[in-house]
Amino acid sequence: xxxxxxxxxxxxxxxxxxxxxxxxxxxxxxxxxxxxxxxxxxxxxxxxxxxxxxxxxxxxxxxxxxxxxxxxxxxxxxxxxxxxxxxxxxxxxxxxxxxxxxxxxxxxxxxxxxxxxxxxxxxxxxxxxxxxxxxxxxxxxxxxxxxxxxxxxxxxxxxxxxxxxxxxxxxxxxxxxxxxxxxxxxxxxxxxxxxxxxxxxxxxxxxxxxxxxxxxxxxxxxxxxxxxxxxxxxxxxxxxxxxxxxxxxxxxxxxxxxxxxxxxxxxxxxxxxxxxxxxxxxxxxxxxxxxxxxxxxxxxxxxxxxxxxxxxxxxxxxxxxxxxxxxxxxxxxxxxxxxxxxxxxxxxxxxxxxxxxxxxxxxxxxxxxxxxxxxxxxxxxxxxxxxxxxxxxxxxxxxxxxxxxxxxxxxxxxxxxxxxxxxxxxxxxxx
Length: 431
Ligand SMILES: Cc1ncc(COP(=O)(O)O)c(C=O)c1O
What we know:
431 residues; alpha/beta; Lyase, Ornithine Decarboxylase, Chain A, domain 1; 2 domains; eight-stranded parallel barrel; globular; binds pyridoxal-5'-phosphate
């Protein structure tokens, strides 16, 4: 059960009124439910219990320190993609020894930092990267744990901008080349071949692409594991969530869990994948991001103006594409609900931000309750790839973030002071 629900006509996050949070902390405001974060983590953890496993939260989805701390406390590791992210793990009290380091462009300095921190493994995306890791490790007199990211060339059937497992993508090493790459890597003295990794894409709402990819890679990983004494196989992240309840089967209530709708759930995921993976006898890693935090967060915004034109009803809000870029970038759907529910007719509306781009919208022609200046709306399912993708476009400060736990709430990121936006800029002497 997600931590957001109406109590009477008030939208609540767990035991806290979202309107009260908006009043106290202002808007735009991200609100996260700790119970939901933990619930999603624990469901996956329980589903994978028959396997020796480690959940490495893909912190690119949400790297707020408090969110990370709550997952680290449950035993989670992290999937990091930069030195900055690894530094955040340390700042959040996470364990670098439970971290995997992904990404196609790791610099020498990033590799050195990760080696010094003793991360669990580098997920390597090319042969030149293997050579670079070996060289840095030799200089530091260390042995670097590595896994090759195999690109299984399986179409995840997801949005083009978040599919990663086909040969059209920059990620990983082609399936057919992987055995040769391991053979050459085994000759590099400062590497330890610790496992194999794959990740086929994000927001997968069916289990079949996972099954297909695992089945395709299993013979390869079995052979390589025996030859190089692997410790683990990582099947990546990518579990999808419900954004649009109208597209899901079952009763159309946005707070219902995917399980209630017969969509991809941890139970179904485990039911199909555990029997395939168990005979391997390896530790299984997964790297979920969106599944854990996507539906654990919403973005609260205030209505500034309602502008009716001959054709349209524009609801102009104080959040914009710099706060939540997903609709502009991926054409994503976010359910939009009022903090104060009222009856009455709906109005076909475009909810738009104040940024000077036509792409700055959250929905188009959507039947929404009639709202007016000063009302508040919540954009649901904004906990993943929301705040982390925020920018200062139009010199707009980054939004504040709040974490709720039962009846408690805490500001976990203060609104960015506007002067911070240009704090590192300098005007040259000749001006
Ligand atoms: C290597 C890797 N692992 C895990 C993830 C997390 O994906 P998701 O948030 O869909 O679970 C990503 C996302 O792009 C990724 O690139």
